Structures are given as structure tokens and as C-alpha cells.
């Protein structure tokens, strides 16, 4: 009993210290990103959960700047890839070149691609061909790349924050649903409020500029990820997650709008994402364990890219956002 009490006390102390450090990260990001507190929290939750995030928003909404600020504050080495239709898998993963030594012997040497970093920004990922998208998403899932039969492990932690423009679809290759499932969360970037836009104008058009500052490093991120997985999840929260998944699946639900209007529902990976993200959100907000409120708040970011409305449902004016909200309210 004493050992259990000591373990619980130690976990509480670790969580308190982690919350304080994460608040410093948010403050650092907040120096350059205005009015996106919820979206910053979702991106950090994805990293703390050990996953990847897809940022979706119109041009000019600071998606790139947000990723750059997160990279600085978390201390993760970052690289950026601008996705274009002519981008090839080797441009991302790397390739082997033939070299000749001084004694005349020839050998192949592997040149790592930009994916060999800790935080990769994949800008406008839907502009690349399906072959290139698949190469990136396979590396995201497996944590390594294979070139000429040789395995090359990616550094840990490794995270991808990809951006996607929902407006300009001409010349793009939308990610298939099976590949979208590789992203832990979808983060929709909204237009700023009037006050937030006022701050942006004042901060970005003057003579002086403010930058984010480094708070964490890769080793500390790994410790925080381990802490997230150690946080307890109550039966009530677990039941809410399971109920939400079943309500969202046409084959299992008793909701008519889902049974007739949803083409496919979320798989088990959605439940895994929700469990981890709820823990991470609780830690970010200074709580030792997640609540059903976390399930409701994270339902849309977790499920939106893992479900699809039928054409008939869209024609009738139904939206995925509204449907997920109603399901989350019922489950939680």
C-alpha cells in the first residue's frame, strides 16, 4: 500500500512539473501566434501523444508560422517540404549515390532526405502525387524508411505537422481515407477574431519582431510522452470513448442519421487516438486524469477525417461537424 501511495505521489509531482513546463511552451508560442489557443493545444496534444497532425485552413492563416513556433518552443529539429506534383519519394526519404574512393573502389552511400528530422512540416501535402504521399505516410506509421533493402530509422521523437488548403483543389490529390487515418488529429485553423487580427497586424508590420523561445528538448518530449501514457483513465471516460465509436459506425449505431448518412465510420485507431489525446489534453490543462469533457472536446479533431457523409446526406444539408457534436454529447 505504501509503495502504491508513493507511486501515486510521484506521478502527481511529475504531472504538476510537466504542466508548468507545458505552460511555458504555450506562452512561448503565444508570443508569435495570436488567437489560436485551442489549435495550439491540439497540436501539442498530438505531439505529447506521439502522433501527427493535419492542419487544414485557408491560405494566410499562419499554419506555417504556427508549426515554426511549435518547433522552436519544443526544441525539435525541424525541416520543411513544400509539396508539389513533381515531388518524388526520393526527394523526401533520401537516396543512394555511387561514390568512388581514392583506391578506385566503388560503393553506395545513403544520402538522408529531409524526413530525417524530429519535426517535419509537410506543406500542402495534397499537392503531391499519391505515390509520394504514400511514401511519407508509410514512414510516419513505421518510424523508418527502407532504401535499397537497407533500413534507416528515423530520429525519435518524430512528428509530422502537415498542412492542407481546403479551398484550392485544382491540381491536387486528396489523401485517401486510409492514409488520413495515419494522422492522430485534424486541426482546423479558423479565421482570426477581430482582436486577434489586430494583434497580428501590430506585431507583424512594425520595425521589431518577436520570436518564440526554446523551452523543451527532444529528451524531455520523450519523457512527457511516457508520462501521458502513464496517466490513469477512468471507466467512465473509457465507456464514453467506446460509446462514441459505436455511435459513429453505420453498422453498429442506433442513430438514424449515422445509419443512413455516413458512408463509413472510425476504426480502432480512432479510439487509440482519442485515449491518448484525452490524456494529453488533461496534462496540458493541469489535470491528472482525463474527463468526459475531453472526449467531447476532442471528438471532432479525432473523428472528422475518419468519417464521411454520403452524397445524399450532404445534399440534405447535414454536416459532419454537427453530427459529431451530437454524437459526442450523447456519448459523454
TrEMBL record:
Chain segments annotated as coiled-coil in the UniProt record: none
ATPase AAA-3 domain: residues covered: 52-185
InterPro entries: ATPase_AAA-3, CbbQ/NirQ/NorQ/GpvN, ChlI/MoxR_AAA_lid, P-loop_NTPase
Gene3D superfamilies from the UniProt entry: Magnesium chelatase subunit I, C-Terminal domain, P-loop containing nucleotide triphosphate hydrolases
CDD domains: AAA (cd00009)
Domain of life: Bacteria
One of the record's GO molecular function terms: ATP binding
Occurrences of domain ChlI/MoxR AAA lid (ranges): 259-318
UniProt xrefs under PANTHER family: MAGNESIUM-CHELATASE SUBUNIT CHLD, MOXR FAMILY PROTEIN
Protein name (record): MoxR-like ATPase
UniProt source species: Maricaulis salignorans
Amino acid at each position: 500500500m505504501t509503495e502504491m501511495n508513493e507511486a501515486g505521489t510521484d506521478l502527481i509531482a511529475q504531472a504538476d512539473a510537466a504542466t508548468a513546463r507545458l505552460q511555458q511552451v504555450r506562452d512561448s508560442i503565444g508570443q508569435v501566434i495570436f488567437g489560436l489557443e485551442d489549435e495550439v493545444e491540439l497540436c501539442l496534444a498530438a505531439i505529447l501523444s506521439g502522433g501527427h497532425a493535419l492542419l487544414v485552413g485557408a491560405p494566410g492563416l499562419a499554419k506555417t508560422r504556427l508549426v515554426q513556433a511549435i518547433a522552436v518552443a519544443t526544441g525539435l529539429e525541424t525541416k520543411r517540404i513544400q509539396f508539389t506534383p513533381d515531388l518524388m519519394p526520393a526527394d523526401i526519404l533520401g537516396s543512394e549515390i555511387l561514390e568512388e574512393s581514392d583506391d578506385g573502389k566503388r560503393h553506395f552511400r545513403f544520402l538522408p532526405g529531409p524526413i530525417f528530422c524530429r519535426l517535419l512540416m509537410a506543406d500542402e501535402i495534397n499537392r503531391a502525387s499519391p505515390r509520394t504521399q504514400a511514401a511519407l505516410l508509410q514512414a510516419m506509421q513505421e518510424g523508418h524508411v527502407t532504401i535499397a533493402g537497407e533500413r534507416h530509422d528515423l530520429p525519435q521523437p518524430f512528428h509530422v505537422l502537415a498542412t492542407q488548403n481546403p479551398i484550392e483543389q485544382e491540381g491536387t490529390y486528396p489523401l485517401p481515407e486510409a492514409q488520413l487515418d495515419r494522422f492522430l488529429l485534424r486541426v482546423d485553423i479558423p479565421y482570426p477574431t477581430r482582436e486577434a487580427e489586430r494583434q497580428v497586424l501590430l506585431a507583424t508590420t512594425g520595425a521589431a519582431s518577436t520570436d518564440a523561445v526554446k523551452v523543451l528538448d527532444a529528451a524531455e518530449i520523450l519523457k512527457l510522452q511516457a508520462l501521458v501514457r502513464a496517466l490513469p483513465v477512468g471507466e467512465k471516460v473509457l465507456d464514453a470513448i467506446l460509446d462514441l465509436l459505436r455511435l459513429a459506425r453505420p453498422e453498429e449505431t442506433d442513430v438514424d442519421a449515422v445509419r443512413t448518412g455516413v458512408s463509413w465510420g472510425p476504426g480502432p485507431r480512432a479510439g487509440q487516438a482519442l485515449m491518448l489525446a484525452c490524456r494529453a489534453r488533461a496534462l496540458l490543462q493541469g489535470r491528472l486524469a482525463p474527463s468526459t469533457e475531453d472526449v467531447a472536446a476532442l471528438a471532432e479533431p479525432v473523428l472528422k477525417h475518419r468519417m464521411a457523409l454520403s452524397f445524399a446526406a450532404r445534399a440534405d444539408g447535414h454536416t459532419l461537424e454537427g453530427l459529431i457534436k451530437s454524437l459526442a454529447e450523447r456519448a459523454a
